[in-house]
Amino acid sequence: MFPEHPEYLKHQKWMNHALALAQVAGDAGEVPVGAVIIDPEGKLIAEGENRKERDQDPTAHAEIIAIRAAAKNLQSWRLLQCTLYVTLEPCPMCAGAIAHARLATLVYGVDDTKTGAIRTVINIPDSPASNHRLQVVGGILESACRQQLQTWFATKRQTQN
Q1: What is the dihedral sign for C-alpha 101, 60, 46, 15?
Q2: Sign of the Cα pseudo-torsion (26, 3, 108, 12, in order)
Q3: What are residue 149's phi and psi, to 5 degrees?
Q4: What is the radius of gyration, based on Cα positions, of the chain?
Q5: Cα separation values, 4 from 1, 8, 93, 146, Å
Q6: Which of 9, 11, 74, 154 has the most crowded CB, counting CB atoms within 10 A?
Q7: Domains in the chain, start-ordered, CATH in brackets?
Q8: Sign of CA dihedral 132, 79, 82, 92
Q9: Closest alpha carbon to 107 in 61, 142, 144
Q10: pLDDT at 130
Q11: DSSP class of residue 24?
């Protein structure tokens, strides 16, 4: 997909929104990950940011928070034809939730070389264990997503020394 392509421009718009949410999370001491969900008409229906530390909840990942909000907003756990944008490749827990929510498309920023469960470490969407097929677009604003995470972790390491 080329940067001038209308679909790419749409992906950039929503990934920028997710990056802003990730910044809020990072400023609050959370790993900076943000997520947004849009409906088939391109309208924002939910958003989330990492909240594990603030909520003391191991499931409070940005994707889970956004999925819960979207399901509540639509009054259905089936998020058919919706698109999830997230700054970091989802982990196994989030990949499972994405499949169970029946999201149509996942767009993510940067690969997670430690726990990525979409394409990098394991591939849950294409696994025989998955009961749902997911369209995946990776690498949208990859550099900005990577830089945000690297800067946050570098700052955290400096303050711990």
Answers
A1: negative
A2: positive
A3: -65, -45
A4: 15
A5: 8, 7, 34, 22
A6: 11
A7: 6-154 (3.40.140.10)
A8: negative
A9: 142
A10: 86
A11: H
Which residue shows structure tokens 């997710």? 18
Please tell me the predicted confidence (pLDDT) of residue 1.
54
| pLDDT value of residue 159 | 86
Name the residues annotated as catalytic.
63
* Mean predicted confidence (pLDDT) in 78-96: 97
Q: Is 91 annotated as a binding residue?
A: yes
Q: Hey, what are 118's tokens? A: 């979409």
Is 133 exposed, middle or buried (CB count within 10 Å of its CB: 0-12, 13-18, 19+)?
A: exposed
Would you put residue 91 in left (φ > 0), alpha (ψ -120 to 50) or beta? beta
| 5 labeled binding residue | no
CB half-sphere exposure, 134, CA atoms < 13 A: 32
What span, in angstroms and rounded, lies between the C-alpha atoms of 120 and 139? 12
Q: How many secondary structure helices (H) and strands (E) does the chain include?
A: 5, 5
- pLDDT tens digit string along 76-85? 999 999 999 9
